Amino acid sequence: MEHTEILTRYTANFVDELVKSGVTDVVISPGSRSTPMALTFTEHPSIKEWILIDERSAAFFAMGIAKQTKRAVALLCTSGTAAANYFPAIVESHYSRVPLLVITADRPHELRGVGAPQAIEQVKLYGDYVKEFHEMALPEATPEMLNYVRNKAAHAVYIAEEGNPGPVHLNFPYREPLNPDFSLDAIWEPTGYGDYERIHQVSLDGRKRLTTKQLELLTEKLSTKKKGVIVCGPQVDEDFAEAVTTLAAHWGIPILADPLSQVRSGKHAKDNVIESYDAFLRNATIRKQLKPEFIIRFGAMPVSKSYLFYLKENKDVMQFAIENSAGYREPTGNNTEFIFADAVELCKDLFSHAPEMDFNLAFLQTWKKMNYIAKTELLHGAEDQITEGEAVRGLVDVIPENSSVYVANSMPIRDFDTFMLTTDKSFTVLANRGANGIDGLLSSGSGAATAGNPVTIVSGDLSFFHDMNGLLAAKHYQLNVTILLINNNGGGIFSFLSQANDKKHFEALFGTPLNIDFQHAVTMYGGEYNLANTEAELKEMLTKSFQEKGLHVIEIKTDRTENVDWHRGKWQTIEQEILKGKE
């Protein structure tokens, strides 16, 4: 068998096994050494290819698809620094638990370390940020080697999706010539002929659940306490909200729901959901009044810094962190008991095992009263010139059902935490909160839009600038993406921090004004641009964009100093109203 046929059958069997294992999408960064894999992906009838030139953008785009679909997505590039440009997204997917299959083409072994062009050390390039690495064998087409390449494909998909999902890296060395021959017969079969029984690649993986005895021990511990809170941090399981709110309703305890928990929106009951806790836990006196006797947290650590203060001040409180599979997410260092069980099943099992608990209902009512006061103030008033908080409030008012919001880090996610109040609308809120960076936002949001439902990206000006290449995907594939661009000409979050007191160096090092007219960038990528000056204008423009196809960017312009004063005014009013009621 000559080289081209060997290359074709080896690569085709790998791609076909990915498809049989459930992979439906591949993001390809064009290059030469990856030619065999790239052409084979595009030739396979059952996989959708997305072609993006910028590797950093492509990797975040793939991550956006995977985050939205909750399935592993393949990501392919050529050798050299192309692979290095995937690194930021791989770090993010590692920490945010998103399944990626990172496939890097490489020079064959004889061309490594000898000065050959476009050859870098790609073996274990991503270190511990991938769940598993495998250096693939050079192509062969014997039945044993075709079986090998299929096994590696199926195993890679399983590892990427099992337990805590994450990236898996496969490195493919290829010798020239690189072009496969798709005129060959039966290239998608392991031997090139005959029937193929797919048996050994199938993997069945169940959910973790506590035993009856473990449930008894847990509920016995909880039954000795009267005041408790459930905390729901970032997570993406669409079944979780119904399960946790049902449990909290029967137990009579509050739920502190992060905007990324998927608990603030949807058709489930929200009577016990406390969404404005960040606004009033800023006050130390109020935090003392709300001291719990136990805390149960599902999902990652919430966005709120106020909640972090609350947690640190209650180190003596019995605390539980629920992880679906494994992991240790407890940055406070508090004495915390970890429970490794599927969150939805645990809520159901706790309800079945102990449907009623004798908890202090007055404690719940205190939380609900404070939450009502905070919500009333957060909904109150309309400024002549739109504020950043009003922008988020207006978006939540008009966002369509069954859409998604992809929120930038720094200031936008914090405004979402404050101003995204509970709603019966069903929509998903996503963000790259693994490493909390601003990079890759537009690419991630555009990737999420490939699932078909509209996506709204909420971006600051720095996040927008950092990933303008991400607009190409929306343009090229005519994705339905609306971007709410909150432009405060710099890093607005730093104006809330102590660095703002350093007037000499603040603007250069932290404020970092860009002074860019983003309208030109939007036009360059074929998008429609609008500038909103009031909340009413913004809502009208957003509504119009949701009814139309393609890329829309709606910008609001704010002043960082005025933004700080406006936010602090809201928080101060909330604190005063709550404390006045306690006099």
What are its keywords?
Rossmann fold, 3 domains, 22 helices, alpha/beta, 6-stranded parallel beta sheet, MenaQ_synth_MenD, 583 residues, MenD_middle
What do you see in this structure?
The protein is α/β, with parallel strands linked by helices. It has 3 domains: 3-173, Rossmann fold (3-Layer(aba) Sandwich), CATH 3.40.50.970; 212-376, 3-Layer(aba) Sandwich (Rossmann fold); 381-560, Thiamin diphosphate (ThDP)-binding fold, Pyr/PP domains (Rossmann fold, 3-Layer(aba) Sandwich), CATH 3.40.50. The chain is built from 22 helices and 18 strands. It has helices at 3-20, 35-43, 55-69, 81-84, 87-96, 143-161, 212-223, 240-251, 277-280, 284-289, 305-312, 343-353, 361-379, 388-398, 411-419, 441-449, 461-466, 471-476, 506-511, 518-524, 535-546, 560-581, and strands at 25-28, 48-51, 73-77, 100-106, 132-135, 167-173, 228-232, 255-257, 273-274, 294-298, 318-323, 336-340, 404-407, 428-431, 455-460, 481-487, 528-531, 551-557. The strands form 3 sheets. A 6-stranded parallel β-sheet has the order 2-1-3-4-6-5, sandwiched between helices. Strands 9-8-7-10-11-12 form a 6-stranded parallel β-sheet, sandwiched between helices. Strands 14-13-15-16-18-17 form a 6-stranded parallel β-sheet, with helices on both faces. Strand 10 (294-298), helix 11 and strand 11 (318-323) form a beta-alpha-beta unit. Helix 1 (3-20) runs parallel beside helix 6 (143-161) and helix 13 packs antiparallel against helix 22. The chain is globular, with a radius of gyration of 26 Å. The model has no long low-confidence stretch (mean pLDDT 93). Residues 13-124 form the Thiamine pyrophosphate enzyme N-terminal TPP-binding domain. Pathway: Quinol/quinone metabolism; 1,4-dihydroxy-2-naphthoate biosynthesis; 1,4-dihydroxy-2-naphthoate from chorismate: step 2/7; Quinol/quinone metabolism; menaquinone biosynthesis. Belongs to the TPP enzyme family. MenD subfamily. This is 2-succinyl-5-enolpyruvyl-6-hydroxy-3-cyclohexene-1-carboxylate synthase. Its EC number is 2.2.1.9.
